[in-house]
Specification:
This protein is α+β, with helices and mostly antiparallel strands and 341 residues long. The chain has 2 domains: 24-74, no CATH class; 110-320, Sandwich (Protocatechuate 3,4-Dioxygenase, subunit A), CATH 2.60.130.10. The chain contains 9 helices and 14 strands. The chain has helices at residues 35-46, 52-72, 76-92, 99-106, 109-117, 227-235, 291-296, 317-334, 336-340; strands spanning 3-4, 10-11, 155-164, 174-178, 199-203, 209-215, 220-221, 240-241, 245-250, 257-263, 282-283, 286-288, 305-309, 312-314. Strands 3, 6, 12, 13 and 14 form a 5-stranded mixed β-sheet that branches. The longest helix has 21 residues, at 52-72.
């Protein structure tokens, strides 16, 4: 006989249902006759969690979720609507589309986690969200070459140096960089993509310098045809990201930096749909109207171009770990009463 087992999976042999092997708690718990008792009982059960970090996370999670339900006096219909929304969000995910990450993005959770895990000091360059359009197939680009094929947008030249917090150059650092074209699309959004475009990989010189040709990126909408798009519409929020240039920098002994630079003047800078913009990452681009200079830098059509000139400051792993531990200590102090519970 075939029966449905755990979570609806079929089993060909009938067997008695079994528990997970954990016995009942050794302490007494009152029957959950009130909302307060439900929360208290769950916290007692969560207190049995063997892993201290997980125990702390579960305790805080329970307190906040139960407080949210009580404060909003959540109705059964609203609760079911939330369950169905999360179900549809998961079902929308594919190998090329991560709707759950998109949900985390628009709720500011992705940016918050990134900021907490990548604190900076000493003038180091701040991080920004990675986003869903990074690929590992970028082609190597020599100093001064282009990451974009001709006709992908208005010319832009990007240059600067990778430095330590003491101002020393970081030679042979690896830079991964990617951006949208003039249509506001990444290369992976084109069905006929045959090779990487508007992305590249390069290395700094002995003096920490880098330079490459690119195109001026455009503001673009995050996917709005799924549950997350519906959520933004229900909030009266747009789904636009300001134009930006992604850069990821790695060098031995240094903390990996994932960041982006946002040209000043975009209408969406202060309302980025995924909260990726930071004040220090907003940059000015110089307008260069010099045909000779444009051709000298390798732009085939000459004319004018935008110049984005910005240095990047890296933290060593030791510096990053020290700052991170300080932040963790400050946060844990706030939750000491919960951890002792």
């Amino acid at each position: 006989m075939t029966v449905l087992g755990d979570f609806g999976h079929t089993q060909d042999t009938v067997k008695a249902a079994v528990s997970n092997g954990i016995p009942p708690p050794s302490f007494e718990m009152p029957l959950p006759d009130s909302p307060e008792i439900i929360t208290a009982n769950l916290l007692k059960l969560v207190g049995q969690t063997p892993n201290p970090r997980l125990k702390f996370i579960y305790q805080v999670l329970v307190k906040h979720i139960h407080a949210f339900v009580k404060e909003t006096n959540l109705s059964t219909d609203e609760w079911m609507a939330a369950i169905e929304f999360l179900t549809r969000t998961g079902q929308t995910c594919t190998p090329l589309r991560q709707e759950m990450i998109l949900l985390s993005d628009v709720l500011g959770v992705s940016a918050l986690v990134d900021s907490l895990n990548n604190p900076v000091a000493g003038g180091a360059t701040e991080n920004s969200v990675l986003g869903p359009f990074y690929t590992d197939d970028a082609e190597d680009v020599d100093m001064g070459e282009s990451i974009a094929s001709e006709g992908k947008g208005d010319y832009m030249y990007v240059e600067g140096r990778i430095l330590t917090t003491e101002g020393k150059p970081v030679p042979n650092a690896t830079i991964e960089t990617w951006e949208t074209d003039h249509n506001g699309f990444y290369d992976t959004q084109y069905a006929d993509r045959s090779h990487p475009d508007c992305r590249g990989r390069l290395h700094t010189g002995e003096d920490g310098s880098f330079g490459y040709r690119a195109v001026v990126p455009c503001a673009y909408p995050i996917p709005g045809d799924g549950p997350v798009g519906e959520l933004l519409l229900s909030m009266g929020r747009h789904n636009m990201r300001p134009n930006h240039l992604h850069m990821m920098v790695e060098a031995p002994g240094f903390h990996k930096l994932v960041t982006a630079f946002y040209p000043d003047g975009c209408d969406y800078l202060r309302s980025d749909a995924v909260f990726g913009v930071k004040k220090s990452l907003v940059v000015n681009m110089e307008q260069v109207d010099d045909d000779t200079e444009a051709r000298k830098r390798g732009f085939p059509r000459g004319g004018s171009f935008k110049l984005l000139k910005h240095d990047i400051i890296l933290l060593t792993e030791e510096q990053s770990n020290a700052i991170r531990q300080q932040v963790i200590g400050e946060i844990e102090e706030l939750y000491t009463p919960i951890k002792k519970a």
